[in-house]
Amino acid sequence: MGDEPTTFDSRHAHAGVAHRFGDYNLRLGGTFEALDYDSVGPLNNDDRDRDLIGLGARLGYEFHPDYEAYVQLVRDIRSYNDPVDDFGYQCDSDGERIAVGFKGRFTNRLQGGAYVGWIRQAWDDSRFNDLSTPDFSGALSFRATPRTTVSAAVDRSLEETTLPGASGYLYTEASVNAVHRLDSRTRFSAGHGRGDRGRGGAKGGRGVHDFARGGGRSVEVKVFRGQRPVWAQEGIPEVELGRLNVSRAPAHVLARHEDEALARYSTEMAALYNLPADAAAQLLQTAYGETPRLDSPLQNLAMYEQVMVFGRTELEGIQAASAIDLAAIFLGTAADKNLPITEDTIIALNRILGLKEMPAYERAALASRANTVREAILIGHGPETDH
User: Region Disordered: what ranges (predicted)?
Assistant: First the structure.
C-alpha cells in the first residue's frame, strides 16, 4: 500500500439496441471501460491497467402489461495491459453470466424484480481456481407516501483484487434506502448497506477491493436496466391526448405542480371533491364560475396520479364518494374540453404515468365519469378554440 490515495483515469462507452415484436422484447448491447492507474511513490500500479468488455443479450416476454419474464446472457472479458503483474501472475479472465428473471408492477405503490442464474469466470493463470457459482439479484421499490419511497436490493458481483496471488472474489451486498421529497427540488435520503466478501478464483484467501466490477456487470446496469421513457415504448394506444400529453414530462414537473396544488388548495374546494362524479359534473355545468376548485390542468393531473396510486390525495377535508369518482373529477378537469375521454385515453395516460393496468370495469367507469365531468365543464365554461 502507498501512503497516498491511488488515482486513476477511466474511459468508458456503452451502446445497445432494443426491439419489440409482439409481446417479446429483445435487448442487445455492449460496454467498454479502460482503466489507467497512477503509481504512488515507489508503488507501481501499471500492472493494474486493464480493459473491461461486456457483451449481452436479453429476451423478455410480456405476459401481462404489468409483468415480464426474461432470460439473459452476458459475456465478461477482462484484459490486463501487462501480460503478468508485478508478482508474476496472469490476471486476464473471461466468463459468462446467465440468468432467468422476472420484473413487474405489483401495485401502483410496489414494483420490483429478481433473477437467479450462474456465474462462470476462468483465469489465464493455471494457479487460479476458475469460478463457477450461483448468481442472484433482486430489488423492490415501495411508495410509502406521496413523498416517501423506500427501496431494498440485493446483488452479487465478481470483484478484482490487489492481493498478490489472488484473482478476485465474490461480493454480495444487501441495501435499503429511503428518499423523502420536501418539494420538487429538495430531497432527503438515508440508506444502509451490508456486504460480504466471499471466495472467488483466488487460492488462499479473500481479496482487497479494486475498482470496477467487470464488463458483465456494466451490461446489466447500463444496457439491460436502462429504459426508454415509458411514453417512448410500444404498447400505448394511439389516441389524441391533447394537454394530457404533459404526462410525458419528467417526474419533477408533475411534482412541482403537485406542490402548487397543495399551496393553492382551500378546504372550501372539498365540497366539489366530496361529490360523486355525476353530481360534481352537474354543479360544474350550472355553476362553473362560482365553484371553488383547482383549475390548472397540471395540478389536476398531479392529483389524479395521487388518487390512482394511494386512493386519496394530500388535500385536507376530502371524503370522496369513491376513489374512481375523485379521480374522474380531477381527470375531467385536466383533459381538453373538446377531446372525449375514452378507455384508450385511460390506458394511454396510465401507462405513461407508470400505473398498473386497471380492471376493465373500473377503467370503463373512470372513462365514463371523467368524460361526463369534461362535457359539463365544456358547457359551463363555454367552447374554447385554443386547445
Answer: 188-211
